[in-house]
Design a protein that fits this description.
homotetramer, mainly alpha, Arc Repressor Mutant, subunit A, Tetracycline Repressor, domain 2, 9 helices, about 0% strand, elongated, DNA-binding
DNA sequence: AATGAATGAGCCTTCATTCAT
DNA sequence: CATGAATGAAGGCTCATTCAT
């Protein structure tokens, strides 16, 4: 006698349901392509419930952006912050590898969030908001790079943009269909690939004044 | 005081107007976000004119994709194909530099086209077509890389994605507000920056079997 | 002072409202001439409500056809089937009279439905469906005639068409402005008139092989 | 060097071209379903030419109605007026037969005009105009009937409506697909059929005061 | 709190109509 | 004159949003 859908749930739980459904639908259909009907259906609730717990479509999208951006930042911060986990050396290259691995891990395990953040929202009224999220990540990367390579954070910014862009491109490749299967976790594979390409160059930049 | 509205124009001219406007609006709003009204307004013509010269929204989008894809491919092919222009050596690094410069030139001068091609959500019925255009460019990059570094084109694909992503990231930085002014053309600056970061790594990959 | 607009109604009720309005508008304007706006306005609901309860314009038209066809067929079948109601003899002429009276009754009391069914242009994709509805009624008439006059149903078809056309013409005359007032129900008057004109001829056909 | 389409033609000729095309298209697609583009294409002229020679769509439709109505009236008048053509007796039944034959001849040889007049135009703003045309025919029939059967024209009107309706119904049957092939001209077949059904009844009415 | 029902606004598309050549 | 090109005005349909239960 207690139909799941109509059971009163704690507000935060309902909100999570709605956000999860929204991210799923937004990632598949895009901001304009997604309909509130579809989101409600995916969440298994009625449309007014979506409004009650997620607000307007724009607010809902913004909430998705915020949540996924924070999730990504947290994941990276945590991973980078964790000192050498005893798995190997703790030199600059290893730290770069771990940061990249954290990024790739976050992105490949939350593919929909990533899609919404970086592939669906780059247009229209949300371009600014997405840009802010993206810049936060780039900024963090620039700080890491400045610490490792020396030089100011400002000077490291273009390199950080390059690095983040490269990571995004590689992620796109991985999320595409045709890539070799591996036993290793994808994040490790991708991080090693990217490290191999960029580390020598970055290493050389250490000597130069940026 | 020349009313452009009711002015009769040659069909090709009008079609170009419409396509230009469409690319602009699509790049800003996305396929779903763009309205035919907006495109008509941007083109300075009436909505029926958009239909007369650009066809259905889907056809119009497809035409934009086709035109910009060809434009970018042509620009890159031409620039890369031009042999050493006497400005310096013609080793692998120099060829990479020129290819990157061509890419940056094409992308920075046709930003909107690139956005439509590479940054738009590839959802729904156009996923395939957009993807095909994207992949054509990355494929070209992969071919160049394979030629330079040895190894198969398939093996070069992730590196190509990485490279294109890195270039994109750097372009974003450049098109952002805060970057130092230079006398040099942006494409040269950006190409040198990216070359500095990735060339050492790529160079090292030459020795390894990819 | 009871705003009917925002009032929540049972779906069947709303659907009936919408169908009624649709039949009215279709009968006045034709399939192409009727606009969903007009139907919504006539029904006193919003356009989305029309779509919610009546579906697409084509579906709505089909639903109108189906409903009116059934209504007319039922009315005629019932009236004809009712055996001699004690009002007089039950010979062939009397049965013809009763059938005609049933037809006139159905047609004069559901004029719009009849118009949609029988007078609308049967163009385009609905030609078949409209025609089917029309033919069902004429077919029924042909069956009755065949039973009364002998001969096959096929042979009776032209006579049935003639009869139905004659009845239509007489109905038009009655619904026009200038006709004498009577105490009798119109259906009786019209049926007697038509019987007087056609019965002698039909009676004579009984002897002949059709 | 003189392309037919662009050759300057006498205005009446062009007008005829346009009217013919219009009737064809209207009869196939209906008033609302027909597009001026389609009419222009069918006529083999440009759209402005249609406007120049046929006027507005409504005017064009009205012109079609007028022309076909007149054609039908003329045909009937002529046929009825022609005294017994020596092919047989000239009693009242023969005169009825000839009038009906004239009607069926006009209708079956100008099927499109008939369709436009009686099957496409019965709705919307042209209902009145069509009604007028129809009434003219019915009036003529009533006059003939009054002359043959005795009684006033007014009294003959319902019978005239009946007769015209019957003729229309039979025409519909004939214009449908499935009817037996004959060597005789259709008009003769149909006229004989209808005469057989209605003449006995009409004959009997002669004795009664209508 | 949760929802079925309702709607205002907007979008894609086409059509009747008219300039300008 | 004849026409290609252009447009204002709907029309069918859907969507984000909100009542009323």
């Amino acid at each position: 006698m207690t139909p799941t859908a109509r059971r009163r749930l704690a507000p935060e739980v309902r909100r999570r349901q709605v956000l999860d459904a929204a991210i799923a639908v937004f990632s598949e259909e895009g901001l304009h392509g997604a309909s509130m009907d579809a989101i409600a259906a995916r969440a298994g609730v009625s449309k007014p419930s979506v409004y009650a717990h997620g607000g307007t479509k724009d607010e809902l999208f913004a909430a998705c952006l915020a949540r996924e951006a924070e999730r990504l930042m947290t994941a990276m911060t945590t991973a980078v912050g964790s000192a050498g986990d005893g798995e190997g050396p703790d030199d600059a290259e290893a730290r770069l590898f771990r940061a990249l691995r954290a990024f790739f891990h976050a992105v490949t395990t939350h593919r929909q969030g990533w899609t919404v953040l970086y592939r669906q929202a780059s247009t229209g009224e949300f371009a600014g908001r997405v840009d802010a999220a993206r810049r936060a990540i780039v900024r963090r990367a620039a700080e890491l790079l400045a610490a490792e390579l020396g030089g100011s954070v400002e000077a490291a910014e273009p390199v950080a943009h390059t690095l983040v862009g490269a990571a995004e491109g590689l992620t796109d490749w991985w999320l595409g269909t045709e890539h070799p299967a591996t036993d290793e976790p994808p994040a490790d594979v991708l991080a090693r690939m990217l490290t191999a390409v960029v580390w020598p160059g970055l290493d050389r930049l250490r000597a130069l004044p940026m």
